[in-house]
Amino acid sequence: MKRRNFLKAIATVGAGSTLPAAAAASPAPTVPDAQKVETVIDHYFSVSDWGIVSLVGYQPPEVMRECWDDSLGPPANLCVSDIRTFSPLQRFVKEECRRAMDARGPGEFDADDYAEESWDEWFENLSAKERADLNQAIDDWLDGGIDWEQENYDVGLPCTADEAAWWHFENKGLFYQRLVGVSSGEAGGPGNSLTRSFLSIPVEEANARAEKAQLPIRFVKE
Question: Which residues does 172 contact at the CB level (< 8 Å), separation at least 6?
Answer without folding.
Answer: none
